[in-house]
Queue: 2 jobs
Job 1
Amino acid sequence: MERTAIIGIGMTKQERRKESETFSDMVFEAVTKALNDAEMTIKDIDNIVTGCNDFWDGRTISSMAVGDASGAWDKNISCVEGDGTFVALYGLTRILSGSYRATLITAHSKGSESISSLITNAMFDPIYTRPLGLDAITSSALQAKCYMDKYGITEEQCAMVSVKNHRNAKNNPYSQLPMDLSVKDVLNSRRLADPIKLLDASPITDGACAIILADEGMAKRFSKHPVWIRGVGFCADAYHLGDRDLAECKSLEKAAKTAYRMAGIENPFKEIDVAEIYDAFSYQELMWSEGLGFCEKGEGGKLVESGKTEMGGSMPINPSGGCLSAHAVIAAGLIRIAEAVLQVRGGAGKRQIPDVKTGLAHGINGPCGQSHCVWILGE
Amino acid sequence: MNKWLETVEPLVYESRIKVPYTWSVGEVGSRFLIELRDHKKIYGTRCPKCNIVYLPPRKTCSQCFFNLDEWVEVGPQGTLITYTLVHYESSMMPMKSPFAYGIILLDKANTGLVHLLDEVKSEEIKTGMRVEPVFKDERTGDIMDIRYFRPVR
């Protein structure tokens, strides 16, 4: 693969309700920060890919509504309706095609402006599933139960993820829910859909993120600290929940293998220094840890118990606080990439893991992690 | 501009996105739903190459991309693969909480059907339990012609 780098990142603070800002206001803030970070102006950008979801934005062709805020006038702009990791993937392929040299990627959503249960209900098949009222929480609960039963994962182990990530969020000025919690607090929080409780679930969040991808020439010209894309993998599973073995994440295993092969990684646990993974629910961090090969199948619970995924552990996961502490849908995966970039640069402030040479970022799309996208970033 | 905004109450515009919509269910969906409505029977489609019976029925095998036209009656009884007890309300939910969803593997089918569970105490719901559908008396040709699944007694 030709060498491509991430040379700028910017994000808004992630908050429960940004009442004073439109979604394009948020995108403008993130884009401005990313351009400043890259020491570029909008004139240096030759194409834009936005991440938008029409249902979350409450309007169709929402990509065009952030065109001005993304500096897209008179430029080539395209859109991905999905998580930010997939938006960035499209941007990367554009650079690799040789047609573009500097791609601006944006992603945003305002969870506060609608009713999450109704929006996520709309992701399901309107004929067979939507009339049941299933949504992101209840479908994930079906998966959590399946996974936990098969491998003997306990609610306490899931709660430990929530405790860890909310504590990590205390070091992240962009996160929404920094909290000191105990396992008991999580276990005693309001039951949503068994086995998922309020503190096992990510919050409703408003936020935006932007990153700038550049080919090698542009990266060397502009950036003192380019972070190189060493590998990317993605894979999709079936759409209907009943078609899948929900206790497994085969599409993640495949996506991870592809990314590792590209990056020349043989032992991910040893060779990756920090991981930002998509923990929309606490059980997911355990399940995705297995899919990413950080531990054996069914050992995700033991991994969190071991303390290895803590800030000071040998495989810190979600030092940003993860999605459990702030979950702006669509932006969330791009924020995982931006956080991994900061870690590789050594610029993550109080949440910095020492001596990061290789970072992993992960995003999901579709119900219960239907598709996965894995990024390996390095110096 | 931001400083000025701090001196006033930011305005929001409250409205809704609501669009009446008519989804074609297609040949496969029509046959499935007409069997539900007229005969209280549940049909899937079978891939002869992969030997997978799909429920809800599909026109295309997701594994081998083969066009499916073999119909197989499945169930009506089946086995509960996973479930969740729901404790909150949302306007799309057809029951008041607490109520349960399950994924049911109907006999002779190879893929699970997501549906509601009822006529069972929450503490009695178990993975692996045998369940059967309860149909509506007046059926209209949609998935809710199955009211819910209940334990086989």
Job 2
Amino acid sequence: MVELGIVDIREIIRIIKKTHDIDFSVFALTSFKYNLEKVMNLNTIHSTDGLIRKLTEDPDFLDLFLNDLFTPSTEMFRDPSLWRWLREEYFPKLPERHFDNFKIWFPQNVSGAELFTMCILLQEIDLLQKVKIYATVYSNKSLEYIKSGSYPLKKLEVSIENYKRFQGSEDFEKYYTMKNHEAIRDTSLISNVEFIKDNINLNKTLQNVKLIMYRNVMIYLNPSRQNEMLDKMQSCLSAAGNLIIGTKEVTRTSNASALKFDIVNEGEGVYKKKI
Amino acid sequence: MNFKAVIIGGSAGSFQVVTRILSSLPNNFPVPVLLCLHRLKHVRSGFVEALSLKSSIPIEEPNDKEQLKPGKAYLAPANYHMFVELANRIALSTESSVNHSRPSIDLSFITAANAYRDKLLGIILSGANRDGAAGLKAVKDKGGITIVQDPNECEVKTMTESAMQLTKVDYVYKTDEIIRFLSKIK
């Protein structure tokens, strides 16, 4: 197991900035260190120099790095009560005219867990064809993975339990098939999703988005970057559009930009752009 | 004894012990207390309330990047790992489960050991798996002080014995002795 010191991490950040113009100094240090060590172990890289060599000399490595570095959202239907709330309170109460141009945006996707979850929910309430879903990825590897539908069995088991608590209208088995001891999620669910390949600065933003799903992404960022991202989300939302973040993410005392949102359902992390 | 934080890990059989410890602390306890206890992933509420009933210091489930304060206890929230970030802040994570656990005691202890080094007191209580053993080793390796609850007193001794196998712990204490040790922290 590799263990990186702060000096190593700073050097890696400096090299990535210089070579690829991506600034990782905006990440929270502890989880960044954990994730860097995870990437190195996954790719059997034993030293800081080894990682730097791969990043500077191997043109294909950056894409892999950007996939492995980011933490995938845990399992499908994480926090079943949020998904129930969306099904029972949020979507039914939206005025019909909103669906003329209803954009939902997932600004960071690694495993597609949140994306597939939303598509299942929308399909079960007959809204999947009425909305436009956008999903941003940082690497081709993440994109291929999501489009393949592949999903680890361990996560599938938890997802099935979550789905029961969500009290979905179907048998969850309907949404995947088994192939060589691996679950393959039904990719027809995401056939109308528009994928956007972008970088961690999110330059390719959208406008007039009604709902942004950004759960447990900002916990990996430092507080000043969290504020920047909140501002960015705010500028992308339509008037009174909604932002959903993790249940323990972002505090109104430490994130000034959080005050630009009204609370809709604090327990589930649902906010609304202030008009 | 000069500590900057106390971190306590526990699982099956630890609830009563943690409750006793928290009820015995002075309300002006000089450092933050981090609690990483195994809990049901899907039950978000109730635990902190139950622990608070008899605690002499306030307990909260911190939000991400929350500043740690002396005299308060911080319970790892359901379904998140709780890291200690430098500058005395919490950082939450949704990384995969470690030892089938999220929160993982190992990850909380390892990150706290990196942040506080020899100014950390790590305590492992009753529990039914090996989580916490690597974490307590990290505390020891960075120069911190390590305590395990006496396995003979533990409802389930797997966790404490695993920790003792991996690390030459400083003290093996019964709950009363842990409480006495904590009362000496200035």
